[in-house]
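ok, trying the design again with the full structure, not the truncated one.
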């Protein structure tokens, strides 16, 4: 049972309940049956399993893996559109979630390592989502350090989750891939049928391609509708847990500018690539979860439809922060960096099919990001990054 005073309960499952974000920490082998964590209203009493099922009949429900940058922003969007939301992560940044979701968000948070099959099965045993949105992953640099762990988290975990989704009657499985699956030497704008990379140059890109392939085969075999989203480099307010260096660097630069500190664009930042605001990727994820389709498998790009050079990025920052010094460190292509793309995505199909708003330009997206940071109250985690 969840303690009423919001404290941590001793015993096999620990609860943190500050505000209305209920957090359960699943302890392998000792998880209690799911009882009280399904919450559809901030003020409701603990619902029974029957009440939870009735609530689901009224409200669609999404299980989102990864309470990181994209998972949290997607949760906010689903909540705003009347969905019940369960978030799963192995590391919960509670204050970050409060910033994104608000103090009183009616969301259930389950803390479990999704690569632990047994603990995950127990932690999810009574969750019955209509849609699963899988954002949890090891991203870029962290994936590069450990290919076997990357295979576990970025490929095996989504497949197991899709099997679980089928077993509990979910209708759709949306999984976040990456535009890192595309070849780097595109000659025209990138559509979903543009040439893909072969051989891959990073464990991360290879793992995302493998995830798409195995989920495609699983969708055909099982009939579960699986939709892949391939985002460009995402920026926005995030907890920086999964290892995206590009996202962390962008956040660090913008936070410094917001604080009025001098900004130096680092040498590892790519010379030219596509950057997209996290809220726009969340829109694509929501569209993928809800668009009308009979296809069992589909892939969509997500991005801003424009590439940005480091110099242009610096200019946009200067325009947003006229009193802040913004300079570029000399470029160094030997550093491990995010994918380079000189051609932008063509999102005609994504926008038309998923019925999403036209994504923000870099100017509008960075302005929105700055607004988000200014209204956030827990930025202490954005500290010096390792490239410094
Ligand atoms: N950030 C980018 O630039 C970018 C670009 C393209 C695609 N993507 C993809 O988008 C998705 C979301 O990325 P993000 O930027 O929000 O990353 P993030 O690091 O902010 O969030 C990822 C979350 O997954 C969680 N996670 C990782 N392994 C886990 C495990 N074993 N069990 C439970 N939770 C686990 C992390 O703790 C983290 O909170 C990822 O799939 C990523 O590959 C990101």
């Amino acid at each position: 049972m969840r303690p009423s005073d919001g404290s941590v309960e001793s015993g096999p499952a620990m609860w943190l309940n500050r505000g209305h974000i209920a957090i359960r920490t699943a302890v392998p082998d000792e998880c209690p049956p799911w009882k009280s964590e399904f919450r559809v209203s901030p003020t409701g009493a603990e619902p029974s399993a029957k009440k939870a099922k009735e609530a689901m009949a009224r409200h669609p429900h999404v299980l989102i893996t990864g309470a990181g940058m994209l998972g949290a922003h997607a949760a906010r969007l689903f909540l705003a559109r009347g969905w019940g939301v369960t978030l799963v992560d192995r590391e919960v940044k509670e204050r970050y979630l409060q910033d994104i979701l608000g103090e009183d968000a009616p969301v259930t948070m389950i803390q479990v390592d999704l690569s632990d099959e047994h603990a995950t099965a127990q932690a999810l045993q009574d969750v019955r989502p209509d849609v699963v949105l899988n954002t949890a992953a090891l991203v870029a640099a962290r994936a590069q350090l450990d290919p076997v762990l990357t295979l576990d988290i970025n490929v095996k975990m989504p497949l197991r989750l899709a099997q679980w989704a089928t077993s509990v009657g979910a209708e759709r499985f949306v999984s976040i891939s990456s535009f890192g699956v595309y070849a780097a030497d595109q000659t025209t704008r990138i559509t979903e049928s543009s040439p893909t990379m072969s051989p891959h140059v990073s464990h991360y890109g290879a793992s995302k391609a493998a995830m798409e392939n195995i989920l495609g085969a699983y969708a055909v075999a099982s009939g579960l509708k699986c939709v892949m989203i391939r985002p460009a480099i995402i920026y926005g307010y995030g907890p920086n847990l999964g290892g995206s260096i590009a996202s962390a660097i962008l956040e660090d630069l913008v936070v410094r500018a917001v604080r009025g500190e001098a900004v130096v664009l680092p040498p590892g930042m790519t010379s030219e690539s596509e950057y997209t605001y996290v809220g726009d990727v969340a829109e694509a994820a929501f569209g993928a979860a809800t668009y009308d389709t009979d296809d069992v498998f589909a892939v969509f790009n997500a991005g801003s439809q424009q590439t940005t050079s480091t110099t242009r990025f610096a200019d946009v920052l200067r325009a947003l922060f006229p009193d802040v010094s913004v300079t570029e460190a000399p470029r160094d292509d030997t550093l491990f960096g995010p994918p380079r793309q000189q051609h932008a995505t063509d999102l005609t199909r994504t926008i038309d099919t998923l019925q999403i708003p036209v994504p923000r330009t870099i100017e509008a997206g960075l302005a929105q990001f700055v607004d988000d940071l200014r209204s956030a109250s827990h930025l202490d985690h954005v500290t010096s990054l390792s490239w410094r």
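Keeping the full-length input from now on. The radius of gyration is 20 Å.
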